[in-house]
Amino acid sequence: MKGYIKALILIIVGLAILIPFASSYPDGLEKVAETLKVEETEPLWKGLMPDYTTPAIEHPYLSTLAAGLCGLTIVSAAAYTLGNLISKPTGQKR
Amino acid sequence: MHIPDGYISPEIAAIMAITSAAFLVWSWKKAKTTYPQSLAPLLAVSSAFVFAAQMINFPIPYGTSGHLVGGTFLSIVLGPYAAILSMTIVLLMQALFFADGGIIALGANIFNMAVIGGLSFFIVKLIAGNSTRGKRFFLGVFAASWLSVVLGALACGLQIGFSPAFSAVGGITVTVPAMLFWHVLIGLGEAAITTAVTTQLYKMQPAVLNGLAFLKRGAT
Question: How far is B123 from chain A (nearest CA, A)?
């Protein structure tokens, strides 16, 4: 378990370091849409943290970092639960 | 490659949702009978890695960017079935909380990234055979991760090309080549990162590479 927590910390540190270097250019699909002049319609659902920003935080770096940390928490928790559903729960002997 | 709502028609979205749902049921059933010990911590950490990596876009030429999708990576660590489920969680959370990928388009996004990504495991296996070390294995990882992005882009190009928003500007004869052009390049980034991360993981923590065990056992 210790190794997994270490790995998770490494992921958070990596994310914190790399956020400022992330490219803001459009991704492949966005570029195709842009070239073909297809407009994105008003989204049906804007999410709680649209485009990986935290609405309550103004500083762009901290806003994205906070969104990232929230995302990591939600994703890890959901994946952990899934893991327990599809395999033997941790600590339980077969 | 996350498709927002509005790019694909309800019909295409429905077809993709049904297809992906079938793959999810299949993965779930296979996963249930596959994993002898708890997968929970590994599933949590590897899904977290993919979520974080998808936030970091790397630039490619001509003012475009891409990011790691991570499907092949997950399939090597978790095996193909849990990889499909893991990526689905990432995509679901991205759509629900971050508006990254549409809600109606979720089925298409799951197919393009989770299903194709997870199944790319079998490309690794095809190239590497049962070998989990050496050049053939890493060649397999490189080729599979590149192909997973290119095939995902092909699927995406077809889905948007057959939908009204894009068929009005040329349809699949325009969208498929355009999607492939960018993702042939983005796929190289995917392949480089996946191969590098897998190499490091193999050196540091070979026991973690559950998926590798699948290669040896023949992925059953």
Answer: 24
